[in-house]
Specification:
The complex is a heterodimer. By secondary structure, chain A is an alpha+beta fold. Chain A folds into two domains: 29-97 and 130-291, 2-Layer Sandwich (Alpha-Beta Plaits); 293-324. Chain A is 23% helix and 14% strand. In chain A, the strands form four sheets. Chain A has a four-stranded mixed beta sheet. By secondary structure, chain B is an all-alpha fold. Helix content of chain B is 65%, strand content 1%. Chain B has helices at 58-81, 85-108, 128-148, 152-158, 164-197, 202-206, 211-230, 237-260, 266-269, 271-294, 299-329, 332-343; one strand at residues 351-352. The chains are: A alpha+beta, B mainly alpha. Chains A and B meet through strand 2, helix 3, helix 4, strand 6 and strand 9 of A and helix 1, helix 3, helix 5, helix 7 and helix 8 of B. Strand 9 (258-260) of chain A pairs antiparallel with strand 1 (351-352) of chain B.
């Protein structure tokens, strides 16, 4: 449906080929920035979670809470969790986490760093070694090309930056909460807490360190990541790097490896922050086929128009028909 | 982030099929054969994939009150044009009171109520909440003038001569204001169905085909019901007919929604949402039948039927709200429909190599 009017706002039903920043009205923006999170080399250190909290002044949310889900006591992304490291324990052979597989051409066998070693379960003694692997993945806001949170925001607080990222303007958001159910990944959340807590009552999420980007710096999580599992850069370049990494892993026999959110034809027009996963997305708590809800909005407005005309017609019929 | 629900069972949430299997309660009888039998799905420790809205009962109240306001202003305008002063009066007052409730609850639910006016910074066609707030902003003052104008004759008698022109002006603006409110009313009563459908909340988004009709119909039943309660039987004919048409459309659209949503429809049958939806159907049907059969003869019966219709509309709005919240809390309702969509070939998903 073509709308009868056009407004120069940060909005679009779907992004064009120039990229989201141009669609939002930026002229000659810098190249689109994003994250490529290669979970095959994540070691679950949570340095990203800590660096993010420290740099962005994100308040604590729950202390000493043990969730009983492997080493994950963070739980999920939310208003006060902008990076979340997931831990999944599986009875499957190791994937690309093995040293050596990670960079096969880097030169021969892994180098002994002299670290203390211990034998793995079933390895030393009698009996067969059982398969076991740990999946670790640092989740983050996807900074979608077609961002539902931004589309539905009624105040214009959520906006598209010149870097093609999606950011909440803290001084404008009135906490209506509409972006929260709109996000297909369950990322953005309204911050709850005592009055006085920073930005309480308004929607909060990863800004891709908008302040650091403006100063030409790397976002805090990527800066802190010791294994370069979190890679920051131009989205085009990161996508190419991700494709190469996938080829390498597949050649090394890690057929589980797949990209998530790297395809510009997916339901959100491709994510600015995408991932290399070693299992199905839902195993990591990610939706397998996220779709920006506003893709269906023109059809919804059409039905609403029919319903509205029906309501008016009902009123007319109620007065015209009948005896009294 | 605090855990909303207990962590998943066992150390291997990945490959293990969901242990909380399917859990259809009630009914007991024959159940329809699902497309994918016994939907298995994987999740991360059973945690939700999408987030439920942070909305409190304010928001379903706002959906109900907005619908009542819209329907009432339509009834009020019709009563005005066809010479039914009692129905006109109650409908105009009801429109003003309920749009007041609507605006109050909308603001009260905000995380920062003091910033409510930021809603009027922009006009965004991509945001149903933005367009809805603007239509309420147009509707409110018009409905207000029409309602306050009911006092014009009294004012004209009471005010001293030099000030009577105020009362006369008010009296003359009543009809234009009432008609202006009625012109915006269909949008006010309908957009909330789009508002919730335009989310990733499974029940609401999957219900996008029916929700605008359910919400519009529910607006008609609520306003018709209120007219039956408050207006004398002799004038309440249009209210009864409006309620009857609304109830028929409401029940038909609800039935369609419950039968076309696949696995997600479970949320409309289970728990609090299920009880509310059942109550809404019983109350709406009983009120409509009661209104048609007895509404013309007995004021008591008309009032009872009207009350049932209003209560039915409340239950519809709260039931759909609760069903949506429940669907967001359970990852099954996010993952399984998406997997089914991919299996049908409707989408290739977000994974690539």
């Amino acid at each position: 449906m073509k709308l009868p009017f056009d407004l120069p706002l940060n909005q679009s039903f779907e992004a064009g080929p120039e990229g989201p920043a141009v669609d939002a009205g930026w002229t000659e923006p810098p190249s689109r920035k994003g994250f490529f999170t290669d979970t095959s080399i994540c070691i679950g250190c949570k340095a990203c979670e800590v660096a993010c909290k420290e740099w962005n002044g994100v308040p604590q949310d729950g202390i000493y809470e043990l969730l009983g889900s492997s080493y994950d006591n963070t739980g999920a992304l939310g208003a006060s969790t902008w990076r979340h490291v997931a831990f999944i324990e599986q009875r499957k052979p190791l994937g690309g986490e093995q040293t050596g597989v990670a960079e096969p051409e880097a030169g021969g066998p892994p180098v002994d760093l002299g670290m203390p070693s211990f034998s793995r379960p079933g390895e030393s003694g009698q009996g067969e070694r059982s398969d076991f692997r740990w999946l670790m993945s640092s989740d983050v806001c996807k900074h979608c090309t077609d961002a539902a949170c931004l589309d539905v925001c009624p105040t214009g607080s959520l906006f598209r930056t010149e870097f093609g990222t999606v950011v909440v303007q803290d001084d404008i958001c009135n906490g209506c909460g509409y972006c929260v159910p709109a996000c297909p990944y369950g990322v953005i959340e309204r911050r709850e807490g005592e009055p006085g807590v920073k930005n309480v009552g308004i929607a909060q999420k990863c800004t891709l360190c908008y302040d650091r980007l403006g100063a030409g710096r790397t976002p805090a999580c990527a800066q802190a990541c010791p294994t370069e599992s979190i890679q920051f850069g131009d989205v085009d370049e990161l996508r190419e790097r991700a494709r190469q990494r996938i080829r390498k892993l597949h050649d090394a026999g890690v057929t589980d490896a797949r990209l998530y959110g790297a395809d510009p034809d997916d339901g959100v027009g491709g994510a600015g922050a995408f991932f290399l996963l070693l299992d199905e997305p839902e195993v990591y708590g990610l939706p397998p086929d996220p779709v920006v809800t506003t893709r269906d909005l023109p059809a919804m407005w059409k039905r609403a128009a029919v319903a509205a005309v029906g309501l008016a017609a009902t009123a007319v019929a109620a007065f015209v028909g009948g005896r009294r | 982030m605090s855990a909303d629900r207990p962590a998943g069972v066992g150390p291997a949430p990945g490959p293990a099929p969901s242990t909380n299997g399917r859990r259809r309660r009630g009914g007991g009888g024959r159940r329809e054969q699902p497309v994918v039998p016994d939907a298995k799905f994987e999740s991360y420790y059973g945690r939700p994939v999408v987030k439920a809205s942070p909305w409190k009962p304010d928001i379903p109240t706002y959906f109900f009150a907005g619908g009542l306001a819209a329907g009432s202003s339509l009834l009020g305008a019709g009563a005005d044009l066809t010479g039914r002063p009692a129905l006109r009066r109650v409908s105009r007052v009801s429109a003003l009171a309920s749009v007041g409730v609507s605006l109050y609850t909308l603001v009260h639910d905000l995380g920062r109520p003091s910033r409510a006016l930021n809603m009027l910074r922009v006009i965004k066609p991509t945001s149903p909440m933005s367009l809805g707030t603007w239509s309420l902003t147009a509707f409110g003052p018009a409905a207000g003038v029409a309602a306050v104008a009911e006092l014009a004759p009294t004012l004209e008698r009471r005010l001293p001569e030099p000030l009577r022109w105020v009362a006369r002006l008010l009296g003359r603006s009543a009809r234009p204001a009432g008609l202006a409110a009625a012109a915006v009313a269909p949008m006010v009563g309908t957009y909330t169905g789009v508002l919730i459908a335009d989310t990733a909340t499974p029940t609401w988004h999957e219900g996008q085909r029916e929700l605008p009709y359910i919400f519009a119909a529910s607006a008609a039943t609520a306003a018709g019901g209120l007219g039956m309660i408050a207006a004398p039987v002799a004038e309440a004919g249009p209210a009864r007919r409006m309620a009857a048409i609304g109830a028929a459309v409401d029940l038909a659209a609800e039935y369609r929604m419950e039968t076309s949503l696949g696995i997600v429809a479970e949320t409309l049958h289970e728990g609090r949402a299920g009880r509310l939806m059942k109550a809404s159907k019983v109350l709406t049907a009983a009120g409509a039948v009661g209104g048609i059969v007895l509404g013309r003869r007995s004021r008591i019966a008309a009032m009872a039927s009207g009350a049932a219709l209003v209560a039915g509309s409340v239950c519809t709005k709260f039931g759909i709200f609760e069903a949506g919240q429940a669907s967001a809390h359970d990852p099954r309702y996010t993952v399984v429909p998406q997997r089914q969509r991919m299996e049908r070939g409707g989408s290739h998903g977000a994974v690539s190599t």
